[in-house]
Batch of 2 targets.
Target 1
Amino acid sequence: MKKAYFAGAMAVVVGIAPLSFVLAQGRPSVSYNQYGVPGLIDMPTAQSAPDAELATTLSYFAGTTRATMSFQITPRLSGSFRYGRMDRYYNTGGAIFDRSFDLRYRLIDEGRYRPAVAIGLQDFIGTGLYSGEYVVATKTLSPRLTVTGGIGWGRLGTYGGFSNPLGALHSGFKTRPGGFSGPGGQVEYGRWFRGDAALFGGLSFQATDRLTLKAEYSSDAYSLETTPGRDLFNRRSPINLGASYTVAPGANIQLSFMHGDTIGLGVNLTTNPKNAAVKGGSEEAPIPVKVRDRASAQALGWTTDDALKAQLRDGIAQILAQSGIEVEAVRLTGREAVVYIRNERYLARAEAIGRTARILTQATPSSIDSFRIVPMVNGMPSAAVVIRRDDLEQLEHHPDGANLMFARTQVSDQRRGPAQEDLLDDQFPRSSWSLGPFVKASYFDPDQPVRIDLGVRANAEYVIRPGLILSGQIDQRLVGNRDSSTRVTPSGLTRVRSDAGQYAKADTALTKLTLASYFRPGENLYGRVTAGYLEPMYAGVSGEILWKPVDSRLALGLEVNAVQQRAFNQGFGLHSYQTVTGHASAYYDFGNGFHGQLDAGRYLAGDWGTTVSVDREFANGWKVGAYATMTNVPASSFGEGSFDKGIRISVPLSHFLGKPSTKVYDAKIQSLSRDGGARVKVDNRLYQNVRDYHRPDLEKSWGRFWR
């Protein structure tokens, strides 16, 4: 059973971000401990990982397995999500499974004489199984030797403890509430830095470029694990000894002898979204900018030759198609070329704009002074990017050409799409289809922590006219075990999501069949109406309006859904449950890659509340974020976890391929899938699609304009 769980926990680690660690890169500058945070063996240090480092750690020690994902949110702040198992916890001999979250912040940077100092909250949202707080200092004594000392509370204050020094400030700090925190998921601020405190410390020695030796004095008594009747190990000493070895860039193993009794093992994988796994790129070089013949710049005779104009329009479309950019319409006047494009290759939208502009210098008459490039998203013009031809000619080889080009580029609202006479032939209707593999995974079932299905997915899309799209998706499972779950999750609400296991039993599933209309109802406004089988569990009608100026960091949206629950077999049948949901949303770009979203409204189970989301987004397409939903459902009705929360990661395929692709792998890690705070899943919600070509987002990837 232990071996099976260890294998399952490893699958959780791989499933957390399966692409992000296949090609992990760069030796980590810090070492991770058994809890998956920067530390020694079991104890933390004050060191921080490089900004944006994403690390996954799997550790095993004396009947305890922990799988942890940590992210360096900012240079000082990091967060961790952990899934652990402790053997023989219950009197029946059964194991306990635990989900927990950590936060740590580096208060002081290391100086010549000053140590780095960090403060941490361990398991601050959870059952309290690993709950603890600490203040820790780390100092580099030589290029190879660092020393650490700290004070801990909670679990980190259980060995060699003494009366809490914070009791001098308030007597309430002297005692700490014990036991589990109900169903878990509560922010247990009433425990923070309370109860006895204890000291811990250790040192780390970089023996070679790959090998690090460690020793620590642990302040964790492991009271739960060594309780008579549980006896997972015999704690004979507070001293732990260990060695960490870098087996490959971004991959470390750690072996330790813990508490004078047992062996601990850890595996750590790291990557950084800021650093491409494949250096450089394998895409074809862009077409160079063609400098005009100034003598012919005033010649406008071509404007009266309709045959020549048609030839020019077709030529522009053919050359752009070779670069993965589809042209829907072209309008040529004496001084301006207006091109409506669909970017189907470049996740860095600025690269698509730049390549389009380069090609236009080659394929348009010299009299044309400016290019108006209009990216089309689901049949809607998302913006108009206006570029002067002279600027392209002057700045292509300028040392600061990207920044100067962005300063001179105009991005404005473009409400209307192309006129009928400007559309190229055979644009509408058009169809496309694809056939490929899929992987579906579910996590955190105590009976089997990881369940996976593999199969074949067929997608088809039929664009009837601009903005009117019929699409469908069918999944055929070939092998897997998601259908084998017999666990029935109790719920105090209507079972809007907790019957997911019933839907997983369908071998052949119509996962989506919709007719969607996208439109521009006014200046800075975008609209969507989607009807049909919206997702595997719900059918109905979804409508959305978004206000988003092209130069604004703020966007506001309103969505209403009238839906009915689908049959478990995911055919055309429906259950009787019907509901209306809706949310008002505010989106804001805080800068430095941080995006916030606030949704307030009614959820699938009829509960009312808000969802707060924060994501860190990178210019190369990576996204790492978290969300939490609080509704009027009490924790007792919501069930285990108390409220809905989770982590989400988007990994661009181009990060690993080294060539352009708009394909992105999305992973969502929920501590539990419950009925409270559940929303309808609808494809192509407006904000994420529209904002890509607006000025704040274009600026982030503008460094690739000349690529």
Note: The longest helix spans residues 306-322.
Target 2
Amino acid sequence: MTRVFTVITFFLFFGLRAAFAQQDAGVWIQIEAQPSLREAQERAQAYANALPDVNGFRLNSGWYAIVIGPYLRDDAEQVLRVYRAERQIPSDSFIAFSNALAQQFWPVGANILERGVINAPVQPEQQPEQPAIGFSLQDADETRSEALQGERLLTAQERKDLQTALQAAGFYNSTIDGAFGQGTRRSMSDWQSFNGFEATGVLTTLQRKTLMDDYNAPLISVGMARYSDVQAGIELDMPLGVLAFDRYEAPFAHFKPASDLDAQALLISQEGSPATLRALYQVMQSLEIVPLDGERALRGNSFTIEGRSQGITSYTQAALKDGKIKGFTLVWPEGDEARRARVMAAMRASFTPTDAVLDASAGAEAEQRIDLVSGLQVRKPRLSRSGFYADSNGTVLTVSEASDSCSRITLDGGQEVQVAWQDADLGVSVLRPSQTLAPISVAEFQSDQPRIQSQVAVSGFSYEGALGAPTLTFGKIADIRGLNGEDGVKRLALAAQPGDAGGPVFDDSGNVVGMLLPIPSEGRTLPDSVSLAANVDRLTEVLNKAGVSGQTAQNSTQISANELSRRASGMTVLVHCWD
């Protein structure tokens, strides 16, 4: 125990020495802070026209501070008193230290942090402080007794807010309960010492304001304010400095970026039932603004969805109550997590549904496209190809390009699949579903070699799912070998589309005699009527390596076109590759 105490004392001693050393090296007077560089530069120029020693630095919070100095501590306090009394600087200006300052932006090209202290522009005997009109000296320099009196007027929530702000600043690590016990008093004293105030353990009115302004800087920087949407029936705090209302397209109120931050938001409002809520839960996950990576939770009559990928972080919440679904979505650029977390927490805490609900016809005149849902872009896979069921458990055969470098592979119904085996030379992949499926039809492989010039048909999603169902493309066997005479591949006289690749090749008995391969894309161009297909022997070999036994064909009787179409539709699947 003695050893632990010694170590703690060591760090406290040297930490305090470092803090005092920093004060001796020079302090600053922070007179203003702005959320954007442009505004800060304009204000720095305005102050520089009236005051000496004006500098600008980026703060660790992301704001831009305008300061004067650096001075010795006593000189800085005298300058602060005089300038405030003369009303040359705001009344809430305060002493700041160099460790709070990052890159300098004013004057351009300067590096004042390396220069050392300079002489103060005022002297005590020349500039006695006089309280300015409208400014209370007591507010600026309350006694401990006066600070305690002001503290008693705080509400319970205001007291909790102060503890929360002290915790965020790194000075408080106990319960947020609004009770100012020894731990809270100690943290207040530490905060006062760190910021150059007398360590009384009781914050004055201006110190409380300084603490809360620092804590709320992320919210202030995005213009957090109360917003009421009468049509949607929702009230909440929103970052209106970076968002602006755009339009209604039921069930959403759309908010577009109003700054270079590129944030977006939706208010969700519609009448509904538990089934409607579940449908909304699924629809939201299909949108581009809701990335695939992240937690999802649907519990009872509410859901939350989080997504992080491709440069954005998205959060959605919605709940059903009294036949009305209300919620919101916040989309924020990655790399600004601290501010996003504060904004999202404020939106969640302030979210208040009212009686109104958005008219279901709102935005009916807006542009309609198959890839839009209420004005929102549906997420699209990087690539879609055909495939077919090779066994009764739902194992799928497809082309390798449908599974290469994919963060996620799904079938058209949303079922996730993983690569069980891949033959890179042939360009074929075996996909195994995460959950056992029950296919309507399963491939029956014809082991006998088809005859040249015999009729065949390829089942595939020619337009990568745009038609919603597979189509049949008819042709003939042109050769039972590849273009260079290689075994394992046959040549077809058939005009296929890129989306058909991976589809089964049928003979006139409905048996599978091959799988369509992609159109070669490197080094050569084939005529439109020439396609290549993998032979059954090679497909069976690949399936065996994946631990799958294909079903051998038993029927050799020609079937009708309708029966072929039915069999092909139940067997052929659309395979999506997602980034």
Note: The radius of gyration is 35 Å.
